[in-house]
């Protein structure tokens, strides 16, 4: 029998609930794999194997707790945990011990998940990279900011992990690591106990190796069982939305796009260009300015009193954010609000939008986690997104694309994603 | 010379910036008054007089820091502070020491404010009362959840204080204590480091004894100097919005309403009924259900693992919130979104809406902080609100009304509030 850590979360959950697999066995296989691979991948900042095993045994001895019963879970280190430090990728938070779990962690634990450890995040979930390496090639970045969470799932260390996205911090590492990443609709998953960045965009989500796995996790996070129960559609009306920054895509991404669009056009009831707003050209700049302004607000204490312990890049971002004046910010928010209404209208014609996730395969080197430009529009609008892995590019690293759904239609988005993955084979 | 703690924040700020009043003198007067009155009022859970005085002396010795230079500030005990415990009115957080200041606290300190102490909050900023008494009559509640912050300002202990509102937790205690309370537009003040309740409504704001004082504080919280600089309008177009629950108002409130509406009709360019949405009758129930559902999400850890340490009332609310299913919640949010658009349209015809703040004078007894029913619509919609004190009712306790502004128009709202207060004398 293959090691249980190779099972998808959904397969493992089924076996665990039938008691055909013990939580202890699954945990042992995951921990053994972590022990073997962690020196190369470096996904974790905190690991508590003894506690995880004890929790697994306790679950085996009791009733089935919920849909995540017995599943090992890795948690990005910006989620508060009552039993493990929460250091946010910053020396300012070294040894920080929160009193309570983040709400999202509590919901996963209630559903039976076992927190194995905390994963590497970029500095305060911004752009300065952590130490995690891409499981496909350790000379490459895993993407960020949810770097360790994506790498841990991609490397079969754990079946599921939690991440957050403000610009592209779930979708992009999912793309770099060749797994499924889900950013639910804005406002549907509690953020209590998660270190804030930009309040109007920060979203809790996570990673799995299959669409069903990501949907399973998101169903618990949102408290919406429809995410794992919605039947697949008969067909799909797909809107193609390469977006205003499409020229930045490298060949591996454009090849993937053309291949996918062609394949979908052959099977979907409709597959055509989506009519994005006429003034959408600078959407990435609008998102970036609002993010900088809100992040400068949220990190005011760190910015003002711990400047020397922040990276230069983060200080520059916060300085930039402080300089966005109130009038400019109000105007950018007004445009965003109009875009939200216009794009919402698009979903009368399209069930989902197809969009690029990253400009290229994972960047070489560990200094730069990559450019979130293709994720900025959908993060700004708060729309649910799911990254779908679609093979590898010319360097042998993963490529893929994202589907974007209507606000609140996360269940339909996940059903559509399953439909697409079945059709693409 | 009268004691400096009697000065309004704006008066004191002017004297402090001209160095005609020292921060130390102001702090000494505030601390002396706190010492005299705190045994009766019980506004504070933490007070650090020595540190506050040291900070005052340091400010006196240095340059003027900003618009709040030298002003004593009281902070609701759900805001994280790096130098004082943050206990959230719950034994679960007894002795809790956060690593960093809440962003809103950091912004006030940057502007020169001195945190005197942490103020009593209801349990986790929900309905179970703390120990604070109404400064006007200690047998009555100060309102909640920002109980201590409102009482401390009303009693001249400090000129300014921070609070939060999810349903009515700023406007209502302001009404009970006869001071000005401001709840800025949703999403304009950073919430990082503030214990969350309902993510789509939680708003940071505060208290002062005059409109100018509340505007001064809010200008720092929002980073929008227009809040303290906008010239008063020539006249106002006022929409009367008693709302669908108006029948719950007691005589002291209806008397205040009629008196005020009559006085404003005589001086405003327009003063007429606002056309609220046709299906607005159950807006309070919609707000209440969304709040319960989101609070149950945000407090998942406390609800699941510390049930025995929560009040029965809070457990009941969280249980109720968990039972709001995803489909119902989605439908309630869709209605809310439509209401937001409809009410936004009203502001083409009205500069501000006049609405009641509380159903009656402050409740007798300390068990019940009062009903937020009149605040629920505006909290649900995210609109900026300011409570204006307007004398006393038949029990000699304060009464007043609130003005509600358009989303993002906080500066115009505060200018309108000044205009109204000048006209009402």
TrEMBL record, chains A, B:
It comes from the Bacteria. GO terms for molecular function: catalytic activity. Pfam families: Amidase (PF01425). InterPro entries: Amidase, Amidase_dom, AS_sf. Residues 26-413 form the Amidase domain. PANTHER family: GLUTAMYL-TRNA(GLN) AMIDOTRANSFERASE SUBUNIT A, TRANSAMIDASE. This is Amidase. It comes from Piscinibacter aquaticus.
